[in-house]
Design brief:
about 425 residues, mainly alpha, DNA polymerase, domain 1, hpI Integrase, Chain A, three-stranded antiparallel β-sheet, 16 helices
């Protein structure tokens, strides 16, 4: 007697439903992708759908291995075409995952060091209130230390949290490193010790056992932009384009208010208080302060928001010009805008940190106009006046032009 076992559920149909492709393209259309861009993506998805059918695959079979197999189906294909196909299909799979139409990417359980490192970063972010830039500086040093203490089976060495182990690690990794790198390693390890103590993973706070590294004060005046250079840079921006309107507003925030690049990134539409003429600044350590909305800054922001900013539900002020119209993800985007403005006037600064040159320029101009270091610290929102003291060297340079010669022996005064 033959026994036939029938499944209660019909088999999943082979191929990729066309309505999912149309839904995805509509999603891109609402994200303001250009028509020629949508045409390219429709062509890639149509080719992918036919390939899925030829391979006998169903919707539930789609994952990253399928993306690789599709992109590699034609050896010797042009690199730009392969890159386009990978990008489009991965974005399509992400769209399907968001709608739970395909299985999510499997999450592998991390090692002890990975979980501890993630918990440490959360501590810096949530408990200490550090900015993301600072977290990105300290985080890798702690990860490297934890990796050095990995026993190979996912656990940490028995003495990984001992002060002597951390001191030995610091000394061993000081060879061939600059004093600034050594200082950052020490700072990161001290923060990690405090984190371990607060989490109850060690019985005493070993942070004081990690040696400090002296940071010598800068002996020269920070590089800055002169008022003449600033005027030339601002005048060269083409404000007839949407990107020019945006870039001009960004440059004015840097030049007139001395904002940091991270503060420009964090600016939202709710932070511009038009009626009271103020702007809310989200500074270091989650410090929130108010600054006057100067007339030219306000006019540039209003022009951008009303005439050049893409239509978006996002509250972040500055968005990408090209689709998808999302906010800038990091200070590097502001640095790119500044460097592009420098190129237009042939300005090639020797120092790094292009956006910060405007901040230094504002401080230098203020001290030359007679402002005190206390006033400069207030405008630049320094938490310590020691950060402002470096600009006093500008005044010494000015004094040399009016100081009388020092009397020498045998010369009448």
């Amino acid at each position: 007697m033959e026994a036939a076992i029938h499944s209660s559920e019909p088999p999943e149909p082979i191929g990729l439903p066309s309505d999912l492709i149309e839904s995805f393209l509509d999603h891109l259309l609402h994200a303001c992708y250009a028509k020629h861009t949508l045409y390219k993506r429709r062509w890639v998805l149509s080719t992918f759908a036919q390939w899925v059918t030829d391979q006998g695959l169903a919707l539930s079979d789609l994952d990253d291995t399928v993306v690789t197999a599709f992109a590699d189906r034609r050896p010797g294909a042009p690199d730009d075409r392969v890159q386009l196909e990978r990008s489009v299909i991965r974005r399509f799979l992400s769209y399907l995952r968001d709608r739970q139409l395909v299985l999510p990417i499997p999450q592998c359980k991390g090692s002890v060091s990975d979980e501890l490192h993630a918990s440490f970063l959360s501590h810096l972010r949530d408990s200490r209130g550090l900015a993301e830039n600072s977290i990105q500086v300290y985080g890798p040093y702690v990860r490297q230390y934890l990796s050095s203490q990995n026993t190979g089976d996912g656990s940490l060495a028995a003495h990984a949290f001992d002060a002597s182990t951390m001191r030995s690690y610091l000394l061993a990794h000081s060879v061939g490193k600059s004093s600034e790198v050594i200082r950052l390693i020490a700072v990161a390890l001290r923060a990690f010790c405090r984190f371990l103590f607060l989490r109850g993973m060690i019985t005493a706070d070993h942070s004081s056992s990690i040696p400090t590294v002296k940071k010598w004060s800068q002996s020269t005046v920070p590089a800055f932009i002169t008022p003449e250079q600033q005027c030339a840079i601002l005048a060269a921006v083409d404000r007839s384009t949407h990107s020019g309107c945006r870039d001009y507003a960004v440059l004015l925030l840097l030049a007139r208010l001395g904002l940091r690049a991270s503060e420009v990134i964090a600016l939202t539409l709710d932070d511009i208080l038009w009626r009271t003429g103020e702007i809310v600044i989200h500074g270091k350590g989650r410090k929130v302060e108010h600054a006057p909305l100067l007339q030219d800054v306000g006019e540039a922001l209003a022009n951008y928001v009303q005439n050049a900013r893409p239509s978006s539900p996002l509250r972040q002020v500055f968005l990408r010009t090209w689709a998808p119209h999302v906010g800038f993800t990091g200070p590097a985007a502001i640095g790119h805008i500044v460097r592009r403005a420098f190129v237009q006037v042939g300005f090639r600064p020797a120092s790094r940190g292009a956006a910060h040159l405007f901040r230094h320029g504002l401080a230098t101009m203020m001290i030359r106009q007679g402002a005190s270091t206390t006033e400069i610290a207030y405008v630049l929102r320094h938490r310590s006046e020691n950060s402002t003291a470096i600009y006093a060297k500008v005044a010494f340079d000015d004094l040399r032009t009016v100081a009388r010669p020092w009397p020498t022996e045998g010369v009448a005064s």
